[in-house]
Amino acid sequence: MRQSEWNRLPLWTFAVLAVALVALWQWATVTANYSGNWTALFCTGSVQAQPPLAASEHIYRFANSTGFDGQIYHYIAHDPFLRSDLKTYIDDPRLRYRRILIPLLAYGLAWGHAGLIDRAYEVVCLLSIGLGVYWSCRYAKGAGLSAVWGLLFLLVPAIPVTVDRLVIDGGLAALTVAFLIFSRSPSWKLFAVLMCAALTRETGWLLVAAYCAHLAWRRELRMAAVFALSAAPAAAWYGYVQLRTAGQPYGASLIPLSAILQVLEHPWKYPPGTPFADAVRAADYLALSGMLLAFGFAFVWFARGPRDPARIAAVLFAGMALVLQRPDQWENVYDFGRVYTPLLLCLAGIAARHRVPWLLAPAAMMLPRIAIQLTPQVLGILRWAG
Length: 386
What we know:
globular, two-stranded parallel sheet, 2 strands, single chain, 1% strand
């Protein structure tokens, strides 16, 4: 199809196409690799202690693994208001429960019915990806590009990780694109986006800070105070969680770049016999280099236009990444790539507006490592289909 033909399509068609492709992939990998057990997408590890819920739901457990974050948010979706002992099976309930929006939406969609929550959670993740594609296509079209470019949203790191392991970061990625659209002028839509971002993950507060800084820069202090209130529901929820959970040490250093340098000096050691281990390590270095490049781009473009909300948000994420250092966040692109996807999306927004495609290079540099991570599943699907 020509660009003019693509642009005549309603934007929702791209969102539906994206959701259909994601759902097809999940069905194929669950059928081929996990014996049809959809709970495998929560990536629950056998090493972790499991609540009775795990047995009653016949949750797929990965052998000799601690699992991934999706298993935690799955539990939260079953008990979003901390009314049971499920929190005792969560590594850091105070931190995890702050990220309530996606689990709470799943609980609400299922009307609290335990037997429907898993499916509802998967639907919420699919809907967040669909919304992200819709808003990305809208942003691309508004920037004078073909709407089809919005499908690239599927390739930012948080989305493959969400598809693969049902984490909450796909939701914040979608809200970041909405932030790029609505931050051009104050509106109730932007207020709602910021409110949801702060409830999705604590890094969502940076979007609130970015827009309030933008308004303050323009001396619109009253409006800045109004939009600061978008974080009030999250602050109230944090207080609720604070009263009902015990805190855990976060284990982060405030020495800039300390954890990143540690990982570069002592990279992740793969088990003996790992296929193409040297290529995997090279992809790890490439992905981490891409992230460092993104930080550099964020500071350069902020210096060129410090009043722009997207540039302020990008530099806030970059600043947090350089100062708040935890080694385990920098060992794999599945960690740092998804956490800092909002930064990559802000750079993509700048690239679209100013026609500087090389700002997409950092995200592209992470794709080989993500592809390697998914290769065993692809091979399993091919064997099953053959």
